[in-house]
Amino acid sequence: MKNIKAFIVIGIACLMHACSSPKQDEQGLKTIHVEVDNIRSDVKLSEFAEAKIIPLPTSDNLLIGSINRIRTSEKSICLSDGNAIYRFSRSGEFLGKIEKKGQGPEEYARINDFVIGEDENVWILPNGKTSLMLYSWDNRLVKDIKIESSYSSTIYRMGDKLVLNNGSFITDNNKYTLQVVDLNTGEAIQRFLPIDEYKAKYLYMLETNNFHPGETDTVCYFNMAHNDTIYRVTPHTCQAHKTFYWNGKNIPADFYHQDFMDIMAFNEDLSDGKIFGIYFQLHSDKHQWVGYTQKGKGVYSAILSKEGDTSIVSQDILLDDFEGFPVSIAGAGWEENKFVTGYNEMVFILQPMDILDYIEEHAPEAMDDVKKKIQYTSDDQNPVLMMVNLK
Q1: In terms of residue numbers, what domain contains 65?
Q2: Which end of the chain offers a freer environment for a tag, N or C, measured as fewer CB atoms within 10 Å?
């Protein structure tokens, strides 16, 4: 159920072959061979990354629901529960909230996605509206840009441009386009159309981020469910950047030529052991951290060297700060528990009571120290953020 959730809830619009199909001889496309059979169960986060714990304050006026998106800037951390957007400093102080839920012309029914603008104002992609809506932190609608589709689910900012997926497998006339919008003029300046008509119906975007050190904010990268390729996007180009070879366990190309009713039928017919999708990606000067799904087994992490040699494969990551508390990269139930931001960092959502229950069972002598780290106040405390950067 977790695997199906990742493909239906998070990604609705298919982008991957809105860019280009990976080819063996495509110039600049790097193939990374990943050894996926040497799985470890004792992987500590400190082996390849550094983490910062940020408890979120809790009060009667500040109770956050299930978080469905996190974006960061140099100054702040913003998160959404679908109803409102909450802003915190990078040390955890509450800075403000945007809440304009409703049916009026300057309101939204629900937030699909959002991005932080250059002036810290927020562009919101609302559910069911053909608009991009710019709000200030005094809850004022600053600007409204019309877009083509009300089914877009994800947006990403590249300087004064916005990239959004436009289309949905829900509709009969699927466009599945990756669209670039000029935020100054409101005009669509570029569209990338699907190339592989067979894969386009089943491949949905999971993550969008800037993750290459030294690159400007006019470049971003996409990875998708049921696709083994990462794409590099600028305001005018979209190219296959690198592809992963999972020890011969990739989905065969002819599998996509079958006429499946929907993504559930696609997943059910796929044989056990096949690896599909890039669940998340993170990159540094020394490491790559990639998540993938193996049918019948779950979601795994592959931590690679810069050159692509596999060093670690694991399902859970053990947290040093909390006496080995295990974090599953696949999330918990229907809730997403991690987000990759444009600042080359992974943000994990940790529930205080889950941590304390683990500590009580495995390391009760550390309870007071852990409570201090998470600034424990009550069982109804807001989540704790863990900001992770690769070494």
Answers
A1: 2-390
A2: N
